[in-house]
Structures are given as structure tokens and as C-alpha cells.
């Protein structure tokens, strides 16, 4: 029997959590074009309606969830997890999640972000654990840590209800929450396995190099030379480790650098093209539009 292609669980699915036909206990979820916030919400009925048991879904964004109350069995990227009280969960862009069994009410808090917005909030740099090597993970945290994280999310939820709130403040709060979540994963042993495969080790090294040098070097040969392997072998290892080609990772890093500059500085398109080592502004504009569907100027004004 052929494997079923997972249904997509898009960012827009959060709209259903605000639908008046669903009974939600707790703070009303918030959703904008790029950000969703769930604060101390009982989502049992919502999840039962949104997720068909034993059916896989592919996530199209980044979701960071902390469970105050839960007894749920899930399969995430072929690994089975039992989610209980005080569990911290992460679902990354492209991850596959399947709800196997829900045994009781679920009370949780969390934030959901589109990848572009997450990287903008983080200044273009994600903590290592969220940079693509892992698409899903769950860890047990201390009750005090869960309460602290919930309080941070509650503050974020309150901020977006304020008239004229600062976008810079919002981004800073999001970055603080993501860094705290990353520290909890590291503290509770959800970083990379102690024994890594060769492709995992090479991928980690490759991502570090891309984050450092993507503004100057756009082709695979530079990174292969730095890792002392052939381009073909590097491409194979990166695809095995991440499911994505090495060139796609380089392109993604370049575009993220461009988006951060366009949204958070007064740089001109010509200056940015030069900064990112493109031969001329026209070439950069065509590249940016091919990757994003917008010209740099259109993106800056959006």
C-alpha cells in the first residue's frame, strides 16, 4: 500500500480556533498574517475537530507549544511521543504530525509563526535546534519552567491587544520567548543525539558555514571546499539529513538576510545587492522575485 501524502496544516487553520462555533475556554486566541498566540486555552474540542486521528498533517510554519494539562499520543516525523502535563513541544516548517490518541482535556499555551516572520524577529538567526535539523520534538520540563513560559506568552498576548504597540517590542518579546524555549530544549536533552550520523554532523557544519558566509558566497563549491568534501557528496549528505537540497538552504539564508535588511534598515536595493555580493541590482531583483514572488521594493512596502 502506498504511503499517504500528509494533509497540510496551514497557518490559516488557526482561524478555526477563533470560529464562534467552537467552544474555547481561556483567553481568545490571536492571529494576524504572521503570528498566532494561544494563551492558557483549553483546546480539546478544537483539536478533535481540526485533526483527524491517525491522519498525518504537514505543518507549514513554526509552532512552539507548552502543555499545562495533556494526555495525548502523537507520531511526529515517524517518532512516537506521549505528551503529558508540563510538556514542551516544537513543530517546525515541513514537519509531519499525527494525533494518535487524546485521553483527556488539553490546556496549552503557545505561539505560531510563519518562517519569514520568525527569522525577522530573530534577526535572521535561529537557535541551532530550530535551524532545520529537527522538525518536531517534545520534552518534559519543570512545573516552574512551564509557568514562566506561560507568563511570557501571556504578556505577548496582552501586548498585541494594546493600541499602537511597538513592532520592535513585539519582535524582541518573540525573540526572548524563542531563546528561552531553545534553552529549555537544551537543558532537558532535546538537542542533537550524542551519537550523530555523518550526514547530521556535516549538515550542522554546513548550516553554520551558510549562516556565516551566505552574504558573500552563493555557490556550493565554497562550502564543499571548507568541509573538504566534493560538492556532490555534500549535496547528498545535506539532503539525507534535512530533506532539502544544499542550494535551497543557501538560497533561504540569502533571502532571509535580504528580508531582514529590507524590513529593518534604510538600505537601498542597490546597496543591498552589493552587500549580498550580487553582480548588479537588476540580477538581485530578479533573484529575489524568483524566490519570493515579490520585488525587493514590493516586499519592503508590504
| Helical residues, percent | 40-55%
- The run of helices and strands is EEEHEEEEEEEHEHHHHHHHHH
Beta-strand content:
15-25%
Tell me the count of domains: 2
CATH class descriptor name of the largest domain: Mainly Beta
Oligomeric status: single chain
Helix/strand-derived class? alpha+beta
Assigned CATH superfamily of the largest domain: Jelly Rolls
The CATH topology assignment of the largest domain is: Jelly Rolls
What would you say the CATH architecture of the largest domain is? Answer: Sandwich
Shape: globular
Radius of gyration, whole Å: 20 Å
What does the largest sheet look like? 6 strands, antiparallel
Provide a descriptive summary of the structure in words.
It is a single chain. This protein is an alpha+beta fold and 302 residues long. The chain has eleven helices and eleven strands. It has two domains: 7-187, Jelly Rolls; 198-301, Homeodomain-like (Arc Repressor Mutant, subunit A, Orthogonal Bundle), CATH 1.10.10. α5 packs across α6 and α9 crosses α10. The longest helix is centred in the middle third of the chain and has 21 residues, at 167-187.
Amino acid at each position: 500500500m502506498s504511503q499517504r501524502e500528509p494533509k497540510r496544516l496551514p497557518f490559516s487553520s488557526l482561524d478555526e480556533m477563533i470560529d464562534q462555533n467552537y467552544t474555547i475556554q481561556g483567553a481568545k486566541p490571536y492571529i494576524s498574517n504572521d503570528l498566532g498566540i494561544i494563551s492558557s486555552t483549553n483546546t480539546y474540542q478544537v483539536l478533535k475537530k481540526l485533526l483527524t486521528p491517525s491522519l498525518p498533517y504537514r505543518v507549514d510554519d513554526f509552532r512552539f507549544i507548552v502543555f499545562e494539562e495533556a494526555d495525548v499520543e502523537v507520531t511526529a516525523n515517524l517518532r512516537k511521543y506521549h505528551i503529558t502535563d508540563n510538556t514542551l513541544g516544537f513543530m517546525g516548517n515541513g514537519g509531519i504530525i499525527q494525533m494518535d490518541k487524546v485521553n483527556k482535556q488539553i490546556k496549552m499555551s503557545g505561539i505560531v509563526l510563519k518562517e519569514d516572520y520568525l527569522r525577522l524577529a530573530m534577526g535572521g538567526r535561529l537557535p541551532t535546534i530550530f535551524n532545520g535539523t529537527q522538525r518536531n520534538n517534545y520534552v518534559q520540563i519543570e512545573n516552574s519552567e512551564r509557568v514562566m513560559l506561560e507568563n511570557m506568552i501571556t504578556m505577548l498576548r496582552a501586548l498585541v491587544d494594546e493600541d499602537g504597540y511597538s513592532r520592535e517590542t513585539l519582535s524582541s518579546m518573540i525573540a526572548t520567548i524563542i531563546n528561552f524555549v531553545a534553552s529549555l530544549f537544551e537543558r532537558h536533552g532535546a538537542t542533537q543525539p550524542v551519537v550523530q550520523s555523518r550526514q547530521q554532523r556535516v549538515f550542522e557544519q554546513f548550516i553554520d558555514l551558510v549562516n556565516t558566509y551566505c552574504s558573500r558566497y552563493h555557490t556550493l563549491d565554497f562550502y564543499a571546499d571548507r568541509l573538504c568534501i566534493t560538492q556532490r557528496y555534500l549535496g547528498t549528505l545535506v539532503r539525507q539529513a534535512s530533506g532539502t537540497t544544499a542550494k535551497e538552504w543557501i538560497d533561504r539564508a540569502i533571502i532571509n538576510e535580504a528580508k531582514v535588511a529590507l524590513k529593518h534598515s534604510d538600505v537601498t536595493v542597490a546597496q543591498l545587492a552589493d552587500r549580498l555580493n550580487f553582480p548588479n541590482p537588476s540580477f538581485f531583483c530578479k533573484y529575489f522575485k524568483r524566490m519570493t514572488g515579490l520585488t525587493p521594493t514590493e516586499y519592503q512596502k508590504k
